[in-house]
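Page 42, continued from yesterday. The earlier attempt failed because a stray header line got pasted into the input along with the sequence. Redoing it now with the clean sequence only.
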Amino acid sequence: MKEIRIIGLLITDRIKEAGQTQQTMTKYAHVIKSRLGFHEVSEDVCSRTGVIILQLAGNTEECIKLEQELLRIGGLELQRMVFGL
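This time it went through. Structure tokens are written below.
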């Protein structure tokens, strides 16, 4: 069955978790179709909290491996949406 898989990540401390999160996403770049990231910004400072939304494509097993690796990173919350086609 074909599906559209989207995951949302809440990063509670971007300064602490950004490096490992980026490294994991780079490792699984072959299953990331789209990526959107944002965080609160003021003129003086960026928020330590951030949100990343990923649209995944390709092998479902690889997508699940990506999710599992992201969940091992402290300070991340992951939410998943899967739409069957």
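Notes: The chain has a mean pLDDT of 89.
Reminder to self: strip header lines before submitting.
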